[in-house]
């Protein structure tokens, strides 16, 4: 069948065993399930992917994209939803990259952590005994030879 136009595939992430996590590398079942899901036939899409172990992961990975694409009225709306979705993904990626690049002291600045040196443990109250002192026996054990392997000459493999 010859087609006069070409519609680009929408941004979806594969969940199959071969291409897990790769955008736009859907297998046939995932592509058909995506079309059904976007068209509002969610139950049919779920039934189509039910035999595959990765079926649930496919819907979970692409939940936000499915919602955005399904809300669109026409092809232009789908393209606009895809552009917004990709912009949101890029913004989240840039934010995560900036957080990792922050100075070590600033990385967890927004997290409510107790100050260093304070603890609610029993150790802080002094209820625990002091740590045991190391002895010189460790050096003697390190120099000792390992035990011989067990005798397996009488074992019969069946």
Describe the structure.
This protein is mainly α and 158 residues long. It has a domain at 28-104. It is 49% helix and 0% strand. The protein has eight helices and no strands. The chain has helices at 28-38, 42-49, 55-61, 63-71, 75-101, 104-107, 122-125, 137-143. α4 runs antiparallel to α5. The chain is flat and about 80 Å long. The mean pLDDT is 78.
What does this entry show, briefly?
With 158 residues, the protein is an all-alpha fold. The protein has eight helices and no strands.
What descriptors fit this protein?
about 160 residues, 8 helices, flat
Distance between the termini: 61 Å
Q: What kind of sheet is the major sheet?
A: none
Rg, Cα atoms, Å: 29 Å
Multimeric state of these chains? single chain
Number of continuous helical runs: 8
**Number of DSSP E strands:** 0
Name the helix and strand elements from N-terminus to C-terminus, one letter apiece. Answer: HHHHHHHH
The helix content, as a percent range, equals 40-55%
Question: How confident overall, as mean pLDDT?
Answer: 78
Quickly give the structural class: mainly alpha
Shape label: flat
Beta-strand content estimate = under 5%
Low-confidence stretches: none
């Amino acid at each position: 069948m010859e087609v006069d136009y070409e519609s680009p595939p929408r941004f979806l992430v594969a969940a199959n065993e071969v291409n897990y996590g790769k955008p736009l590398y859907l297998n046939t079942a995932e592509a058909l399930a995506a079309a059904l899901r976007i068209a509002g036939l969610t139950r049919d899409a779920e039934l189509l992917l039910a035999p595959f172990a990765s079926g649930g992961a496919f819907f979970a990975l692409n939940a936000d994209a499915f919602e955005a694409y399904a809300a669109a009225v026409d092809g232009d709306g789908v393209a606009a939803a895809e552009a917004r979705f990709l912009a949101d993904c890029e913004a989240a990626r840039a934010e995560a990259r900036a957080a990792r690049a922050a100075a070590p002291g600033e990385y967890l600045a927004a997290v409510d952590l107790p100050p260093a040196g304070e603890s609610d443990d029993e150790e802080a109250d002094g209820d625990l005994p002091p740590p045991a002192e190391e002895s010189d026996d460790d050096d003697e054990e390190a120099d000792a030879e390992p035990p011989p392997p067990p005798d397996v000459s009488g074992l019969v493999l069946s």
